[in-house]
Specification:
Blueprint (H helix, E strand, L loop, with lengths): L2 H21 L8 H33 L6 H20 L4 H25 L1
Helix pairs in contact: 1-2, 1-3, 1-4, 2-3, 3-4
Length: about 120
């Protein structure tokens, strides 16, 4: 997969997390069943994507030097994606913090996709 495709997949994954977060009305109990049946598989799937995305994104930034995206933001984006996944199941943070993480990741991914499209 290329950088554009992985970025689109990550954007789709965080959108699913946002929907899940919004559907949770109260903080669920942290059970092994929830962890092994839902959290772990989702986290591993998205972690595999971020593991492929990060080196591609780093190389792209070094080669193209985009105006609004920098290398340090890529590392932060990976960490924020991990938090979004976990919090979408457990809701251990307040809404504002979740949406700040979500908006940050969404901005990086959408800006990157726009820049990639303009490079063609």
């Amino acid at each position: 997969m290329n950088l554009e495709m992985i970025s689109k997949n990550l954007l789709h994954a965080i959108d699913e997390c946002k929907e899940r977060f919004e559907l949770i009305k109260q903080k669920p109990e942290k059970t092994e069943e929830l962890f092994y049946n839902k959290v772990k598989p989702t986290f591993e799937t998205v972690s595999d994507l971020t593991a492929k995305w990060k080196p591609l994104a780093d190389d792209w930034i070094v080669k193209t030097n985009p105006k609004y995206i920098h290398l340090t933001q890529i590392e932060s984006t990976v960490e924020n994606i991990e938090q979004i996944i976990l919090q979408s199941f457990y809701k251990d943070i307040n809404n504002q913090r979740f949406y700040n993480l979500y908006n940050s990741v969404e901005y990086i991914l959408k800006t990157m996709l726009t820049e990639l499209h303009n490079d063609i």
